[in-house]
């Protein structure tokens, strides 16, 4: 369903309004901006370095025409007054930019650094009376730690207390903790933002999206590192296979589905103070590899080999998320097969 047309009925934010998207040069941010523009809105996108990310404005201007997208530089999310210009007059805010270092050593320090920036943005949004909706990007890792072949159940109210416990365990060496400190940081940062909402009681809707691993096509493969979606290319180039072997089977979401999910939340005033699971289906990199070898048999010998890693057995409620997609004209999630093939082909290798 990756090519479905966005269809909005009585959106709570009128078409033509302006939406602010932070971290717009990344995989997630660029797809959110793309879908917001496709829905009929104007977009302001922020990046840390405007000159290095000039391609973003060129990309969206070519696709949607002059004046629909404008790029702003925000070198430090916590800098006083840095949001004054980007946020002036906008109707919605999508917060994507945040901690990207998986190997966190100091959880509390990382949490403080992230929250300083997010609180600064939230304060600016509260002060700007035009803002009707704010969507915060969290992670499914703030909900649970994926484990292959391990039945478990989670809900939108679940927090990853296991990761916090591992991160706080003084008996474990950093190598033994793995990325648990990063997951713990995601938990505490999201909880910190919910704490701000409880204290400040903003008039705008506030929701968090708990994104799982994001796959799908790269909008500009020559300009974007593409994060997790970039790993699909490694299956052909045979880079960092040791890293991929340690990524447990888990849930994923296609980048285009993710973008539409944000549009649905932004434009529905009845969705407020909720955590929304951004999980479209199960995946593993060995399964992605299997899909690509079957889809491109003439290149089968070029691909790497990965050992079978089992399969995710986590049960979670995705009906709310799918119902939101339905409201913008999409009837079902993009399949792993489609997402993996589109992901691979976007690299043109």
Automatic annotation (TrEMBL):
Keywords: Oxidoreductase. Residues 19-272 form the NAD-dependent epimerase/dehydratase domain. Pfam families: Epimerase (PF01370). It comes from the Eukaryota. The keyword Oxidoreductase applies. GO terms for molecular function: oxidoreductase activity, acting on the CH-OH group of donors, NAD or NADP as acceptor. PANTHER family: ALDEHYDE REDUCTASE II (AFU_ORTHOLOGUE AFUA_1G11360), NAD DEPENDENT EPIMERASE/DEHYDRATASE. Belongs to the NAD(P)-dependent epimerase/dehydratase family. Dihydroflavonol-4-reductase subfamily. This is Putative nad-p-binding protein. It comes from Phaeoacremonium minimum (strain UCR-PA7).
